[in-house]
Amino acid sequence: MKVVIEDSYRALSRAAGVAVARNVRDKPDLVLGLATGSTPLGLYRELIRCHREEGLDFRHVTTFNLDEYVGLPVEHPQSYHAFMREHLFRHINVSPEKTYVPSGMCEDYVSYCRWYEDQIQAAGGIDLQILGIGRDGHIGFNEPGSSLGSRTRLKTLTAQTRKDNARFFESPEEVPRFAVTMGVATILDARQVLLLANGKKKAKAVARSLEGPVSSMWTASALQMHADTTAFLDHDAARKLAHLEYYDWVQQQSQGDN
Ligand code: F6R
Predict the structure, then answer these.
(1) Is the pLDDT assigned to residue 111 strictly greater than 90?
(2) Catalytic residue among 6, 46, 51, 67
(3) Ligand 1 pocket check for 140: Cβ under 6 Å
(4) Given 138, 164, 226, 234, which residue is catalytic?
(5) Contact at 8 Å (CB) between 206 and 231?
(6) How many domains does the chain have?
(7) Residue 120, domain extent
């Protein structure tokens, strides 16, 4: 795994933005996997800037979001549909029919999740997946104990995740108990992965996931098995890594270690 450590959240967002923009330019019909939450907001601002100032063209890009809360209709302000509209889609020229965000309002999730996986396949698979990481090491909403072979499905959120996400809701009880999420294996199928993390709160999850044993208790650790993952970190998120000096050294050599 390539580990890039930047001086600030702004710098890591910009570095990740440069990587995404390069991919869109190289492959205008890129299939892009997207995350929600606080972490990718700076990256999305950077992509919006590239679209406005440099003409970065999203017309032929297809997007697939990782997850959605169960029980929130698309117009609910805390739904991930609303999040994506507000923070990215309405600011760039992506085609609405090419943006997929899982539905949190299904009757039959088994069929729906299979359909979602089929759409990813039909689009040619995800070229580049953007990820944040939960304090418990989750990617998507693959909470500790999730099968590393899991595909898109319903998942019960942990108390920690509901507490972490309560900041977006009026009261903690309003945080949904379930989410529909791409599985760990769905994520590992992406050709390239960018994992973003900033802040001290993520330091333990980052260290366990990047340097600890591969374990379903820290689902981001499954990325150690992925051949093309880059972790973009700030110093706070990187502070518990044992091999910091080596990552700096690799960065100085500007070689593309994975
Ligand atoms: C969101 C997602 C989650 C978040 C994670 C970190 O689509 O898949 O895994 O990336 O919970 O959230 P933030 O960025 O808010 O700290």
Answers:
(1) yes
(2) 67
(3) yes
(4) 138
(5) yes
(6) 1
(7) 2-257
